[in-house]
């Protein structure tokens, strides 16, 4: 293995529950009949462009309101995923983060959780490429920038969008099944499922 590529939301930081709660409430205000479980199934791990496309036309100021609600909730509640810092401490190969989120949001999440220093200069966003996940573009861009071959990369993901992107990029993938996404939605996609982030270095060591 030459490089470990981490997703951010739901893998490094426990933000998915916050975004699902805020997003579900926002869509209900638009008249959607949707609960948090359905929202998670449809939108967790998707790109901002995909989300906007699915939501469609919105009233003036609607996006700004959601952004403020989301940032306030993140400021008050966001924490690093339990066990992820221990895993990072034990990794002996280079690693980076590649997220469908915008650079500003990823940076804010890493700073709020104290993880920013660990990824300084090694943060990649869907803003950097033409297509976000589930297209492979973002992971291929991260690998090329970090000087690693796709076959030498392992991706740490928690959503079907991300797992599909890793598979399309020709990379190995470990899928975190201890978060918001049910294991049933992650199985059968080609990834190795795990529940305890502290085991990430051990799992990587066993990859062929």
Explain the overall architecture.
This protein is α/β, with parallel strands linked by helices and 208 residues long. The protein is built from ten helices and six strands; from the N terminus they run βαααααβαβαβαβαβα. The chain has helices spanning 16-29, 36-43, 48-55, 62-77, 84-90, 103-112, 137-146, 160-168, 183-186, 200-206, and strands at 3-6, 95-99, 123-125, 153-157, 172-176, 192-194. Strands 3-2-1-4-5-6 form a six-stranded parallel beta sheet, with helices on both faces. Helix 6 links the parallel strand 2 (95-99) and strand 3.
Number of helices: 10
Strand arrangement, major sheet: 3-2-1-4-5-6
Total number of strands: 6
Q: What global shape is seen?
A: globular
The end-to-end span amounts to: 9 Å
Helix percent band: 40-55%
Give the strand content: 5-15%
Please state the average pLDDT score. 94
Order of helices and strands: EHHHHHEHEHEHEHEH
Structural class by sheet pairing and helices = alpha/beta
Show unreliable segments. Answer: none
> What value does the Rg take, in angstroms?
16 Å
Report the major sheet. 6 strands, parallel
């Amino acid at each position: 293995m030459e490089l470990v590529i981490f997703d951010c939301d739901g893998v490094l930081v426990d933000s998915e529950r916050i975004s699902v709660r805020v997003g579900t409430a926002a869509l209900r205000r638009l008249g959607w009949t949707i609960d948090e479980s359905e929202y998670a199934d449809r939108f967790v791990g998707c790109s901002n462009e995909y989300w906007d496309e699915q939501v469609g036309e919105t009233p003036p100021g609607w996006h700004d309101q959601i952004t403020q609600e989301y940032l306030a909730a993140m400021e008050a509640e966001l924490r690093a995923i339990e066990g992820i810092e221990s895993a990072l401490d034990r990794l002996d190969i280079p690693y980076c983060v590649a997220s469908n989120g915008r650079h500003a949001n990823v940076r804010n999440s890493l700073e709020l959780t104290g993880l920013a220093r660990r990824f300084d200069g090694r943060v990649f966003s869907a803003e950097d490429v033409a297509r976000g996940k589930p297209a492979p573009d973002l992971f291929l861009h991260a690998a090329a920038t970090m000087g690693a071959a796709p076959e030498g990369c392992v991706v740490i993901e928690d959503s079907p969008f991300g797992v599909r992107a890793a598979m399309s990029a020709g990379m190995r993938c470990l899928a975190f099944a201890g978060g918001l996404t049910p294991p049933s939605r992650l199985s059968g996609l080609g990834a190795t499922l795990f529940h305890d982030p502290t085991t990430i270095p051990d799992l990587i060591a066993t990859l062929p």
